[in-house]
């Protein structure tokens, strides 16, 4: 046996002793061991490559010794790997079951959404479906189709956010735009409510904001009357504010309805006896309503000689503030968890 071959065999023996004596204290040193001896560029790979230097009659013996070396390295690696895995399991199962559980925070819906969903449920029981539409619309949907002529003074009633590069495009000022959308479909009768966010260029204060939420309603069919509207809104008021609630309708003006009215409901805070909320009158204004103007029906392709209908709209924030005794509309959009957490019980 040549000196070179003797050195190769001796190297294998030395490596076996080295592997057996390597200290492995943690997962990091175990990974270092694997890379050094069993990795794709490890010591064993290099030793295996020296088989070409061994004479043919000694290759079998060399192969056996190298395989024994590899087996020793793998056994040691697997032994410590299993040991560390068992240690992890022991730690993870070592739990004190007598300790109290971590507190679980219960979320809640936003007060505006609580009221919105209640309004939807009430009208759903009366057969109304929910219709939604985009918040960015053009002039036709927001004004023209609703009987607002270009120089109509009623346009000044609503301060509008127009898109600077496209003056004909704007942020909707009411969800009446969805009423137009539904009427243009031509599928009659229509009995729908339209909840959603609207925008107006107003100075932000305790009573007004540049955006708020509305629910509008539309019912169009043959022989729909003002009496139908009044009874529908009375049922809504009693479902929303209490079975003893009464309503009153005061003449008003809206471009898209004729006749039009503002609707008040008996103050549910004081029982109509008079309080600061109702300004000692016993009544609280909650919505506007009226019979759909024939011009609006015709612009949307509906025969006003055959069909009639009524529409109504209310601000959700206003009803929310009344129901929950909130005196500043700004707190509804400030995302203050201290304020919002008060409504968990109303979820």
What's the gist of this structure?
The protein has 347 residues and is α+β, with helices and mostly antiparallel strands.
Number of helices: 11
Major sheet attributes? 7 strands, mixed
The strands making up the biggest β-sheet line up spatially as 1-5-6-10-9-8-7
* H/E element order: HHHHHEEHEEHEEHEEEHEHH
Please state the CA-atom Rg, rounded to the nearest Å.
Answer: 39 Å
Low-confidence stretches: none
Summarize the structure in words:
With 347 residues, the protein is of the alpha+beta class. The protein has two domains: 3-92; 111-346, Bira Bifunctional Protein, Domain 2 (BirA Bifunctional Protein, domain 2, 2-Layer Sandwich), CATH 3.30.930. Helix content is 40%, strand content 20%. The chain has helices at residues 3-21, 27-38, 43-48, 56-93, 111-125, 139-142, 176-184, 226-241, 294-299, 316-324, 337-340, and strands at 129-130, 136-138, 162-163, 166-171, 190-199, 211-221, 247-254, 257-266, 283-292, 308-315. The protein has a seven-stranded mixed β-sheet, sandwiched between helices. β3 and β4 form a beta hairpin. α1 runs parallel beside α4 (56-93) and α5 crosses α10. The chain is elongated and about 120 Å long. The N and C termini lie far apart (89 Å). The model has no long low-confidence stretch (mean pLDDT 87).
